[in-house]
Each structure stands twice: as C-alpha cells, then as structure tokens.
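Researcher: Please predict.
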Amino acid sequence: MQFSVLLSIYYKEDPLLFHRAMVSIYEEQTLKPDEIVLVQDGPLPKDLSDAIVYWQKALPEVFKTIPLSENQGLGIALAIGLEACSHSIVARMDTDDIALPNRFERQIAYFNDKEVMSRVPYPIDICGSWVDEFETDELCNTSTRRLPEFHSELIKFAKRRNPINHPSVMFKKDLILKAGNYQKMPYFEDWYLWVRAILCDAHLYNIQESLVKMKAGFGQLERRSGLSYAKNEFNFLKALKRLNFLNFYQYVFFLFRVTVRIFPKKMV
C-alpha cells in the first residue's frame, strides 16, 4: 500500500534537526514512503532552503515541496499539503522529530494486513502511537507520552486531552477531508481535527509502543503557558462547545484549566 508523509516547515526551524528528521523518515525506515510532501510555510532563511535543496536532489522522485509566499500558520499549511498528497494513506511528521526505523512498517499494517487488522474490533481510520521525549540527546529519553489504545477510551479521553500524538499519526486522507481537513486553530489544529473526525464517525487507535522521538524541554512548557496560549485554548474550547462535543460539566472543567495558563510558567 502506497502512502505519503506530510510535513510543514517555517523560518524558525533548525536545519540540522530537519536533516535528522528526513534521514529518519526515509533512509532509516524499513518501509520507505512513496512520497514526502513538505510545505514551506512562508519565506525561509538560506540555511533551511539549502537543506531542502539537498533533499530535492537526493530524492527527486519522492520529495515534493510546496512553497507558500507568506506564513499561513500550521493549520492552513497542512491543509494545503494534505490536498497535494497523492496517496490515500498519509503519515504526519514534524521537522524536528525522529521516526523510529519500524514506524511506517508497524503503522501501515493496521491499514492493509488482515492478520494485524483482526486484532482491533473495528476498521481504523486514524492510527497513532506513543511518543518518547528527549531534550538534547535522542538516545536519552526523558519521558513517554502514553495514550489509551481503543476508540471508546479515546472518545472519553478527547474531552480532556489530545487523544493522538500528532507527530505519530497515520490516517486515511478521504476521512480527514470529510471532517473538514486541517483548519486554523493555533496550538490545537490536530486535536480540533480529531474531534471533528470523531463526529464524522472516524475510528481512532493508538499502537501501544513508541514509534517517534520528539524533542521537548522547557521551551515547550513556555509555549504552552501565558495569556496568548490561554486565549487560543479558550477559542478551541468554544469551538468544541459549538460542536456539542462537551457537556456543561466538561466545559467548566476545561475552562478552569484554561485559567491556569495565565500563571507564570514556573508556577504551572
């Protein structure tokens, strides 16, 4: 079964981390993607542009780039990129994360291997996994983002937390387009998409092992606190309420959590 990998990159990304991500996506994989789609979200500095040119030359039949003249934000960039993906199955990656060598081989089996598919009591539309986090050394994991396995658990989980680790996800393109594709929802583009997909009867599943390594640390906590983040989280909360995904008590619980974001990050 052929599949695409979708990425987005913008001017703040590190070319060395991008190169490491690309090596992990293609050269180190036991099952290599048939297509890699990279959206260039606005103008890029020369070192990033040079890194992209390197991979264009290295993988001319596989690596496709979509340059945007202005920065659109992750949601819009991914929506444009998904439309450009040629295959019905699409995997997501971030340009500073690392795919473990068996990632795609393990995930694609849940879409095309009857024996593996029989282990799950429903057809899978969106498949994620656990994710290992590291700070500077990819060989030294600092934590693991574990998530529930089955759809019924994930629906409940999605009312409190993001049910899918975005850099680990593989999904059916037509289902995601049916749910409205990625949309502008800063910091919550993926969670918002999973909720809309659930409401379109998509079935979620998480492989109970880590298939991606994600760079984390204090900078990530910094991005997820403060007034700006709280405003975006409140907008996301209102969107979930409009979709009738949350009841009154779930809404109040979520609202309380939003208020915590305005505290200084060292207190969170």
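Model: The first strand starts at residue 3 and ends at 9.
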